[in-house]
Amino acid sequence: MNDRNKKIAALTALASVVLLLWLLFSPWGLIANHRLKEQLAETSERNQELTAANNRMQQEIERLKSDTTYLAKVAREQYGMLRKNEVVYVTPPPKVKEKH
Fold first, then answer.
1. Where do the structural domains in the chain lie, given as residue ranges?
2. Residue 76: which of 85, 59, 61, 88 has the closest Cα?
3. Could you tell me which residues come within 8 angstroms of residue 53 by beta carbon, excluding any fewer than 6 positions away?
4. pTM for the whole thing?
5. Which is more confident, 59 or 21?
6. Extended strands (E) in the chain
7. Is there a contact between 64 and 74 (Cβ–Cβ < 8 Å)?
8. Are 71 and 64 in contact (CB under 8 A)?
């Protein structure tokens, strides 16, 4: 091989390495593409979780709108509400005797 062919081979090798590195690490490269696919998968999974939670809440809303017995139960248990003429007696827990 003469010097000219060696220079061409070296430049071709260098250009190939630069191109390969650019394909791997550029903003449009394989590594960036892989990260984006992972983010898309995570986002899709989170979207499914939120959709399921939204559906559960929508069912809860519909039940609260249509089932007055359930509405009264929730009002009592979660918000401490009482019916008319209803009294709640709260007894303190028994005191534990300490041993000396």
1. 3-79
2. 88
3. none
4. 0.55
5. 59
6. none
7. yes
8. yes
Q: Which two tokens stand for residue 10?
A: 């070296």
User: For 28-44, what is each residue's pLDDT tens digit?
Assistant: 777 788 888 999 999 99
d(CA 49, CA 41) in angstroms, rounded, equals 12
- At residue 16 the predicted structure's pLDDT band, cuts being 50, 70 and 90, is very high
Q: Is the dihedral of CA 75, 77, 82, 86 positive or negative?
A: positive
Give 28's DSSP letter: T
Say if residues 28 and 36 touch (Cβ distance below 8 Å). Answer: no
Amino acid identity, position 48: Q
47-62 average pLDDT score: 98
Dig out the tokens for 56 from the structure: 């559960």
Pairwise CA distance, residues 77 & 91, whole Å: 17
Read off the DSSP letter of residue 9. H
**Residue where the block lists tokens 């939670």:** 53
Q: Token pair of 57, please?
A: 């809440």
